Amino acid sequence: MIAPTLALLLAAHAATGPADLEAAHLSAEAAVRAGDYRDAAARYREILGTLEVRESPDAPWAEWRRALLQLAVVETTLGNGAATRSAMDRVLALDPQASLDPDLFSPSVRKEFEAARTRDATRPRYRLRLTSLDGVGTGWVQGRPLGPVPAEILLPAGSYRAGVESGGRERTVTVDLARDESVIVDVGAAVPIPAPPVAVGSSAGEIDSRSGSWIRPAAWTATGLAVVGAGLTTWQAIAAGSGYSEAKGMLQPDGTLKPGVSPSDYTVAIANYESHRTNAWIAASGTLVLGVGATVLWLLVPSSPVEPGPTGVALRF
Length: 317
Fold this sequence. Notes:
- It is a single chain.
- By secondary structure, this protein is α+β, with helices and mostly antiparallel strands.
- It has 3 domains: 2-121, Alpha Horseshoe (Serine Threonine Protein Phosphatase 5, Tetratricopeptide repeat); 125-208 and 302-316, Sandwich (Immunoglobulin-like), CATH 2.60.40; 216-300.
- The chain is built from 8 helices and 9 strands.
- It has helices spanning 2-12, 19-33, 37-52, 61-78, 81-94, 107-121, 215-249, 263-300, and strands at 125-132, 138-141, 144-148, 151-156, 158-166, 169-177, 181-185, 306-308, 314-316.
- It has a 5-stranded antiparallel sheet, with no helix packed on it.
- The longest helix is centred in the last third of the chain and has 38 residues, at 263-300.
- It is elongated, with a radius of gyration of 30 Å.
């Protein structure tokens, strides 16, 4: 059942990929016919790896979908449920309405695919916005054209190949999507642009790669100090409350000292209460300042890196 399925897929998409991809698919199909499904799975993963390093127009979505679905079929045969679900999830991330032809896929594979569709519907999606420095070009994600830039698409969290094609030139980057992101791709530049703030040197296109590198460590440091400050505030507040209760317990309802209570003891209890209360206020103020600072720093730093291609450039914010 598996070999005919893959053969039909191969025939259906034979004209979609370059010769080297077709040769790789033929090799994987041969492994399936020989019953070596592990080797077939490895070959399909090699095809996906090849697509990962190509510019978007040279790695069309049809090839991604083809390799992922074939990999899912083989992994199902091997009983690798997690790998099957992962491949299907990647298809549905870009094409939530995708369906499997009953003439090409077995009932068990189609059932698993529908379960993946149900699972995908519950996953939060984030907005990925693509544009270029000059605002010209066509946006791509995973080899799928999105139209003229600025272009947007909603995607589940994950790693995606995204880029811009303009004037016959392409730049593709890997985006690890974990929140709404806006990516500016410089199609004409040859060096990477780091996340803002950026410092432009005296020569055209010269970028100071150190700009902004301190933000993430500073954000972690401020966060850690804010946590410590919150703990110190709590400790001093508890101590102040204890000192107040102790001092209050030395007084009668009319405000005079209870019989047997030494005035010096009461004075010490009040002094302890006031000292701890002052310390609590100081710690709380410092914690507030650190918390605000940490929040600002985290807003300035991206949640995850953008990896440029060999000649690609991306500015993410």
